[in-house]
Amino acid sequence: MHPEGRAGNWNTCAQAAATALLASHALGPYAAGAQPSEAEAIAHLVRTHPPDMPLGLGTTAFRLAQLLRDHGLRVRHVHSGLFGRHEMIALDALRTHANAGWPVPVCVDDGLLGGRAFEAHWALVRHVGDAHVELSNARHTHLPLAAFRRAWACRALPYTHNSCALLVER
Q1: 5 Cβ partners below 8 Å, 6+ apart?
Q2: Crossing angle of helices 13-24/38-48, nearest 10°?
Q3: Which of 93, 53, 20 lies closest to 61 in space, CA to CA?
Q4: Nearest C-alpha neighbor of 90 from the set 147, 152, 150, 138
Q5: Which phi and psi (to 5°) does residue 71 adopt?
Q6: Which pTM does this prediction carry?
Q7: Which is nearest to 126 in space by CA: 142, 150, 146, 145?
Q8: Tell me, what DSSP letter sits at residue 169?
Q9: Do residues 161 and 151 lie in contact, with contact meaning Cβ atoms separated by under 8 Å?
Q10: Burial class for 113, CB neighbours closer than 10 Å (0-12, 13-18, 19+)
Q11: Which residues pair with 78 in a beta bridge?
Q12: What are 46-102's pLDDT values in tens digits?
């Protein structure tokens, strides 16, 4: 879903990313063959795992990881660490996971991708090539790798969200 497509729910991108993952595994709002609309599924996840940033300004990697774990998925949180020292390790983990067919929630600085300045957004990485990244739940579906890496660095966020990815498996 395009981040602008959730009118009135500008801060539920983490729950939207989770919805896509849960739908593909028939978990959470999609369990037992249920087929809620995407908006209903997101609203359900917002009720059970609301944004945890002060003033409801968004969802941290820790809350998103817990949401996914609470629905039976395994999650490993990777990030670049202090001063971005481990960015290439995080990128290699992201590439390996996404290219194995597992969509990966990543935190990006949406302001660097055409959104509001310093606004973080949870997108899903579908594939990482040598020169490009394919995404969903994002403003752009294809980005040059260099542009993705700049946005993924999320320089305005705490270090646990710099070059942050949640590696999710069933």
Answers
A1: none
A2: 110
A3: 53
A4: 152
A5: -105, 20
A6: 0.93
A7: 142
A8: E
A9: no
A10: buried
A11: 165
A12: 999 999 998 778 999 999 999 999 999 999 999 999 999 999 999 999 999 999 999
